[in-house]
Amino acid sequence: MLAKNPGFTAVAVLTLALGIGGTTAMFTAINAVLLKPLPYPDRERLVYLSLDNPRRNGPDSYFTLERFEELRSAARAFSALGAFGRAEDVTLSGNGEPEALKGARVSANFLDILGVKPLLGRSFLSEEDKPGGPPVAMISAKLWKRRFGGDPLLVGKTASFNSQPTTVVGVLPRSFEFPFTGVDVWFTRPAESPVLPPRFWRFVNTLSVLGRLKPGISLEQARAEAEVLNQAYILAHPANGLEQSSALRVLRLKDRLVANARLTLWTLFAAVGFVLLIGCTNLASLLLARAASRSREFAVRAAIGAGRSRLIRQLLAESLLLAAAGGAMGIWLAQWALGTIGRVIPLSLAASVNPLYLPGSGQIRLDSRVLAFTVVLSVATGVLFGLFPALGASRPDLAGALREGSEAGRATFPRREVLGISARGLLVTAEVALSIILLIGAALLTGSFARLRSVDPGFRSANLLTMKITLPHGRYDTDQKKAGFFRQLAQRVESIPGVPSAAIAMSLPTTASLHTNIISVEGRFLWNESEPPTSWQFLSVTPGYFRTLGIPLLRGREFTARDNGPGAPPVVIINESFARKYWPDFPRGPDPVGRHMTEGADARVGPLDMCAEHVRQLGGESPLHNLMEVK
What we know:
Radius of gyration: 32 Å
Number of helices: 16
Oligomer: single chain
């Protein structure tokens, strides 16, 4: 019967294939990322500790090493607590061309907490996690195969990471990426950030904390203990005003890892589900019209003894056959779409500064659960769009349908109404309503995207090229060496034909940079009980940064080569937000240019010398629109 009307059959199969294919593709991503458990033993006992502080950019702020150590020594609900720092760039040299890698610094017990055994070698030792411990590293199986040829005797040998001889103690299993996506090398001592001087390591917020609950301890008990420990820390450190409003939360590790992806995936799944429903209502309308044109056929079948159940089974069989063909083509379309999804997710994660490992993002593929979902979905859609027309066609008007003439046949097809609306009218109404919902959502998303593209980022992005470079710490171990390298680099880049200017910064515009804890202007700490402290970002740049990015200076002057020389008085450029915070009448009233300020990492350390060892120039977060020189 379907072969007699190939046009209808092709349209029906293609419509279902689009709906089932899109739904299957999104379910595949949801299954891999959200539904599958973490690939660790006793995964339900793995937790993530989140330090939520509105004074430090809101939820999921980082821990200081000092606070992490106090928490680890006082907590009793956890069998172990570990930490990891921010992702960092690592240079591997020797035995071939230098290679840029992504590295992670973790506490020595992070594999024990996760319950993971190395593929080769051993885990880190506790003495290797202490200050001054031996330089050791673990590498990924991909790097082991690619760079070292899968050498089974690699463990114990030395490799050059950041120009520092480092002993490779282990190789981690394939597909292991924790705590960041695409990480290839792991080091100990997570607080030892390569972009901060050692005196900052204990007091700058750079650590994320994970742990494993003790057997028999529930998540609620751990949360209650965390609340008590958080209040005890606040009372024990009254001078640290930034921590007075912090909250210590405990949540499942899986919930934290997928937090940024959950809403997006379910929203997209709902969208393609609407597309599938629209396709089902469209096919139901087509089948209803087709059943009306076949009323004489049904009447003949009924006249020669076919019962109502027999007619319903025949029509449902045709619908299920269409659904099966649409489902088969939908699987093919889903497989094709998964290639795009597999490329988009890593790209979106790469856009983040510290992209946490998204479980399952590298294993988004069709499996038995997805195929079972597709089969159930195909059967459900076949019944959904086939049952309604089948019920209407299973009670033909025999006398009227057997009359001569197509007009009589059409007139005698049973007309069913609900609240005065025909069945076909209900289907069309539902289809239009679903389509309008999708169109409104698409229009809103398109409008939001257009508005985002029209937002002024605060700098001129046209013809602006960026690149990243990591200096080996062993070779460039002093500020003089680093400054000399970057000075020559900027000069050589500017000498390239077609390059009017070049500048170097610690991080790119719109990405995260380092944070300060306390800002003091004109010798006065700018926080008290009535005015809580505010965390400000700072960025180290070279002269010519604002000219290269096309950022206008409203007042004052740009940095000069003299400002960047050794022994030069420390100067700073602030943005307009900072100026309006501490000089509310800006641009009227007192001129911020020429005022003095200091910044510190912790109240007990005191104001820090802004120019010493590391930071030469400081700036506000992008967009930067105002200039202030502090001497």
